[in-house]
Amino acid sequence: MAISKLMVVDDDPEMREMMTQFLRKHGFFVLTAESEEEIARHLETSRIDLILLDVMLGQENGVRICERLREEQDVPIILVSALSADHHRMAGYSVGADDYIAKPFNPDLLLARVRAVLRRGRRSASLQYRRNISRYVFQGWSFDAKTNVTLAPDGFQVALSQREIALLKVLVANPHIALTRQEIAEGLDTTRETGRHLDVSEGRAIDVLVGRLRSKIESNPKEPDMLRTARGVGYVFAVDVDVSDG
Predict the structure, then answer these.
(1) CATH class of 5-127
(2) Three-class SS of residue 237?
């Protein structure tokens, strides 16, 4: 099973650290943020499965941030607040929050609510790469997601099929995250990319596609450095990826 990636957003260092350590102890990959700017930066470069968003962030308002995120993101959001009155909760739900937890809270309750929201949510929604990102750089490689031009470290262009391009887009948008074959198939959106449906249930289609991409981007496809097998899960793009919008 893939490890869920959470973002804890709180401007209180002690609360942020407590939540982060508790969630990591229970098997989650956790990023942290203190502001809307940091939230946006994480969403541009990583797949996020759930955001725990404090309502009172210094001069910023978590409810308004949630509202703005909902305009372009499907990632599940749990609002966390010392404001526990019904009208505060309703304000959160009205802007698209998936749940609302009042401080102080029992950590076990937090864990239960996080797991419940993750079960309800569709992980595939957060696999989508942001449309404003066009260029990815990794291990000396350069990939332009708008033109689909892939350049090797030596500067030569490498020809990829449409399906291989679709797979690479999913991988570079979600580095260091173990993805199941089903998640990869859903993220590929092969009907849009290739005009054909890729049936993951027939002939281990994802494994074949991964093997083809490895043969083109790995120096040793049998012992890959980048596109690695995640035992018991699927595959992981195991290198850092730098992104830009031009």
Answers:
(1) alpha beta
(2) strand
Residue with tokens 């399906």: 163
Q: Which DSSP state fits 226?
A: S
**Residue 45 CA to its chain's centroid (Å):** 8
Query: Minimal CA–CA distance to 92: which of 118, 67, 56, 57?
Result: 67
Round to the nearest angstrom and report the end-to-end CA distance of the chain.
35
pTM above the 0.85 mark? no
What are the structural domain ranges in the chain?
A: 5-127, 135-244
Tell me phi and psi for residue 138, to 5 degrees: -155, 130
Least confident of 57-61, 76-80, 111-115, 194-198: 194-198
CA 235, CA 237: separation in Å to the nearest integer? 7
Residue-wise pLDDT tens digits, 27-81: 899 999 999 999 998 888 778 889 999 998 888 899 999 999 988 888 899 999 8
CATH T-level assignment (fold) for domain 135-244: Arc Repressor Mutant, subunit A (1.10.10)
* Contacting residues for 214 by C-beta, under 8 A, at least 6 apart: 221, 224, 227
